[in-house]
Amino acid sequence: MNSAPFAFSVSVIVPAMNEAENLPHVFATLPSWIDEVILVDGNSTDDTVAVAKALRPGLRVVTQTRRGKGNALTEGFAAATGDIIVMIDADGSTDGREIHAFVTALVEGADFAKGSRCAPGGGSDDISPIRSLGNTMLTKMTNRLYGTRYTDLCYGYNAFWARHLDALDLDCDGFEIETLMNIRAAQAGLVIREVPSHERSRIHGASNLHAVRDGLRVLRTILREREGRVGGVRLHQEHAGHATA
Ligand SMILES: Nc1nc2c(ncn2[C@@H]2O[C@H](COP(=O)(O)OP(=O)(O)O)[C@@H](O)[C@H]2O)c(=O)[nH]1
Ligand SMILES: [Mg+2]
After folding, report:
1. pTM of the model
2. Where in the numbering of this chain does the Glycosyltransferase 2-like domain appear (predicted)?
3. Are strands 84-87 and 60-63 parallel, antiparallel or unpaired?
């Protein structure tokens, strides 16, 4: 019997570089009704791929062709077959049980469901003070330049209809991928809804992100994308937890 709560197929994309110890925790949170899980391996030197396959026999594995989280996600998205694409991390910081809220936002009318640790009901156990400060400044800058009302720019938990992949037109390699998605979604006039999300601490290992190096990549992306901006930006944004009756 099919107990899926939604009439649409859902693909979950998981970029992973040396996350063998964390994958058991991550996969344990994935709802049973997910149609497809794609692990995008970043040339891991540990047992990431073997552990992932053992945990999920139907798992699809994509080996990324370049380096970086952005390249991994872009290639994972291209391989997805679901109506809806969800991106989560492999380090235990994003909780698969929240996927229901992201998909609900899409089914209720959003084109792009954007996770936010700063929306009412969200939070983070993982973000450092320096990253929090940088993220706040970069979020404000993006809102000012693009007319958006985002509360959290650099967060890796998002979902969208696969039919919008062309509009997002992703072409970056690094951690600036989330920023690029958020800007291009707004520029394409997609209906964007923020979904409050609680980011937990990475369970094992250390972050691959370097606040200054990757913060500068995000900054360059924000400034560069403005040159390609055409016409006005249409943004419909509301918080999933605050739907009006
Ligand atoms: N495939 C792949 N995954 C990556 C790469 N860099 C980071 N990731 C994954 O992206 C997710 C977020 O990375 P993480 O290092 O935790 O960065 P942070 O969450 O921003 O501190 C994790 O699942 C990582 O394993 C990469 O170059 N390739
Ligand atoms: Mg992390």
Report:
1. 0.93
2. 11-160
3. unpaired
Kindly give the number of the ligand 1 atom that is closest to the alpha carbon of 207. Answer: 15
Domains and their CATH numbers in the chain: 10-228 (3.90.550.10)
Q: Which atom of ligand 1 is nearest to the CA of 17?
A: 25
106-110, 124-128, 177-181, 226-230: least confidently modelled range? 226-230
Measured from the CB, is residue 21 less than 6 Å from ligand 1? no
CA distance readout (Å), 128 to 30, 70, 201: 26, 21, 10
Each residue's pLDDT tens digit, 181-232: 999 999 999 999 999 999 999 999 999 999 999 999 999 999 999 986 554 4
Phi, psi angles (nearest 5°) of residue 200: -95, 170
Task: List C-alpha distances in Å: 241 to 97, 120, 129.
Answer: 15, 8, 26
Q: How far apart are CA 41 and CA 60, in angstroms?
A: 10
Average pLDDT, the chain: 93
Q: Where are the alpha helices (DSSP H) in the chain?
A: 23-28, 48-55, 69-79, 99-107, 129-146, 165-168, 177-187, 211-227
